[in-house]
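re the bet — no i am not wrong, look at it urself. input seq straight from the record:
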Amino acid sequence: MKIFAFTDIHEDMQLLARIKRVIEKEKVDLAVCTGDFTVFSNGTKMMMEAMDKLGVPLVLIPGNHEDEDEIETLLPRFKNIHYAHERVVDVKGLRFIGFGGRGFRRHEPDLEVLERKHAKDFDGRTIFLCHAPPYGTALDEVDEGWHVGNETLTELIRRRKPMLVLCGHIHECFHAHDEVAGTPVINPGPDGEIIEVEE
């Protein structure tokens, strides 16, 4: 199965149009956005309308730029958007669990609560989505030796061992790949990446 993942697009409609063309050309099965698709929520409706028309199901979480209440209000209008923030979403045989927003804390108590709540929902086909990256990886190193990611997420990955983790937030780390306890972790960048996974 081909997933097209992207993050931190910040209302770039031209880039989103290019993403749609890639999805069509490469026969992608579904898309994932790990947040910051707006600039401080200015274009939430516009961006959700455009992402709903990518031609494939889109699994979405918010970034620190989005208003979660506004997204929740708009969701019923969009049949192709599957909102995974703090919930479990099954799409095309894959399971997504998401934790969006935030991005600036080393420790995240709400993420600990989410992990406990959904401990039994993690399985071998789970993809975890988080706007913030895991601490101590290539995805959170903004300068040599300077890590700004989330330790709570790193520990969650070690305990729950999802199949894949997709993040964003740190612009210096676009297209960074790493792994935590054998789990691949990827920041796909705003222009995105195609990731192939077994169904």
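see?? The chain has one domain: 2-196. told u. also Residues 13 and 47 are 8 Å apart (CA to CA). so pay up
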